[in-house]
Amino acid sequence: MERSSTIGYILIFFLFLGFWFFNKDTVQQLENQEQIIDVNEDSINLNQSSNVTITSDYDSIHHLHKINEEIITLDNSVLKIDFTNIGGIPKVVNLLDYKKYDSTNLLLIDSNQLHFEYSLPLSNGHVLNTSELEFETIQTTDNSVSYIYSNDGSEIVQTYTLEPNSYKLDYELSFIGFDRKVSPNNRYAELNWKSKIQQLEKTAKDERPVTSVYFKYAAEDDIDYLSETNDDDEILTSNVQWISFKQKFFNHTLINQSNFKEDGIFIETKEPENENDDYVKDLSAKLFVPIESNDVRENMAWYFGPNHYPTLKEQNIGLQKIIPLGWGIFGWVNKGLVIPIFNWLDNYFSNYGLIILLLTLIIKLGLFFPMYKVYKSSAKMRILKPELDEIKERTKGDVQKAQQEQMKLYKQAGVSPLGGCLPQLIQMPILFAMFRFFPASIELRQEKLWWADDLSSYDSIFDFPNGFEIPFYGDHVSLFTLMMTCVTILFTYMNSQNSGQMVGPMKTVMYVMPIMFLGFFNNYAAALSFYYFLSTCITIIQNVVIRKFVIDEDKLHKQIQESKKKKVMIKKSKLQKRLEDMAKKRGVDPYTGKAKKKK
User: Which of 17, 156, 244, 522 meets the CB 3.0–4.6 Å disulfide criterion with 149?
Assistant: First the structure.
């Protein structure tokens, strides 16, 4: 590898390093807000077909009454939802096309995991909490259910409609006759929504850094989210179209067709105190429904489903942006190139190892012609190496003179010393795009390849015993990452042997880089390491084939020698002339940098 190509790889490495650190969520935890109302989720332990004793503040005599829980189920081809009459809410949500890591049913929401209630401050000083109320079922069909709570001429009606073959659940809410009963100082229903996010993948530790609360302001195209790596909270100050409790590969999202309009919407994420707990995080939101008339109606919807890019995009609300595909050009590469190719291959092949191989070959083929300049530049630099060494020997440390003669030689031979650098950078957007694409692709979830049982997670062939962990490496050994590191070292060695120009610190850096990548990728998706392994292997094969069969170095040498016979005038740039003039005015020799002797 010539010096310029080496510079290109080093630049790619440091940009990759910066990209990695930039995408680590470094948002500092905000000051905890006093406005959040803590609800003891264990205070109501609901089991199917059980009698539950509830105290309702709305009852004027504050008597105890028993609620007999009834479960109604709606389902379609992809979703099964159990509803409870206690609070009139979804209780269990089962995604039928997916399984948990342990092969059990994937319950996106399980019993007692979801707390969803409306609190209405009443003019008599009491608070009406819907989670403590028994709703009556007033209508059921194959795809819908309606619940009503009635008291003294006031009604709360909740209607759910499950669309066919869809992860979307339409949700209509009505408050009737409450405008005369709510407190004149707090004329709104406060919606408290909390979810204890359960582990669905290999480890909760793996899910935790990619789980958070996402949201979209109605007036903005982009989305925002709370810190994924720290406890965080925020008060939202504008209309919100939707709020999503997003996990690694799934989410449940509450959408308001007319937006949540009240200022002061509060969202929060909390990690468990013990990182070894088997649940991921506690996510919560507090929203408001204004009680401004006798009949208040809110048209909302739930999305219970996978973080699958085409499926989320079909919702037409920008929900697909919760998938971390990278910012700027890296996201464009994923959305405009990688995802369409991947989905096209997925239509024809079922083996994801083969799909990744074909994807790699297609990308390498597309990059062949830009990279051909790198190979040709490498060949020219190898041919010129003896003459470059001779120039260094002849000039004996005169850097200025050596540079002038080298530039003249490059000009005669038609070689650009940076010719191999810029084409290397063409690969950078794809390199980084893949870094985000594979770990976020639900298509790879639980897909097996050889020893890897899940291409979306790391492929451990050995777990260190007794909780032992190597800093910056992890508690296991991923074989695909080892393979990627080995072929990268081999590629570096082959290039150094071919060019002979990597010496000193530069040579050391080129060998240290693969070792550092070993630490980066050990805990990442096996598919990512497999892709980089295949990509490097194909690059090695390309180099060998082009050198042996495409580029005739003897013919190229003759062309260079013919070009050298031509007289070449090295023109000085305007900047170079200006610098020389400035040096002369200061009495400094512009070629040696030494002060001129006074006569």
Answer: 156
Nearest to 76 by CA among 97, 60, 92, 58: 97
Give the CATH number for residue 42.
2.70.98.90
Secondary element (H or E) of residue 67 = strand 64-68
Residue 311 forms part of a structural domain: yes
- Main-chain phi, psi angles of 99, to 5 degrees: -125, 155
Question: Which residues partner with 467 through β-bridges?
Answer: none
| CA gap 537, 401 in Å, rounded | 41
Q: Does residue 353 lie within any of the structural domains? A: no
Q: How far does the chain reach from its first CA to its final CA, in angstroms?
A: 49
- 8 A C-beta contact, residue 115 and residue 131: yes
Strands 144-151 and 154-162: antiparallel
Range of the domain at 192: 31-323
Residue 175's DSSP bridge partners are 156, 296
254 φ/ψ angles, rounded to the nearest 5 degrees: -105, 125
What's the CA gap between 374 and 381, in Å, rounded? 10
C-alpha distances in angstroms, 363 versus 105, 482, 531? 37, 23, 11
Residues 209, 278: contact at Cβ < 8 Å? Answer: no
**CA contacts within 13 A on the Cβ side of 46:** 29
Three-state DSSP at 279 gives strand
The pLDDT tens digits for 414-465 are 666 655 555 566 677 888 888 888 888 899 998 889 998 889 888 888 888 8
Name the token pair of 360. Answer: 């790699």
* 359 within some domain: no
**Residue 472 located in a structural domain:** no
Q: How many domains does the chain have?
A: 1
Residue from 303, 299, 198 nearest 243 by CA: 303
Each residue of 232-281: pLDDT tens digit?
999 998 889 999 999 999 999 999 988 888 778 999 999 988 777 778 99
CA-wise closest residue to 567 among 412, 374, 355:
412
Which tens digits make up the pLDDT trace of 306-342?
A: 999 999 999 999 999 999 888 788 888 888 888 899 9
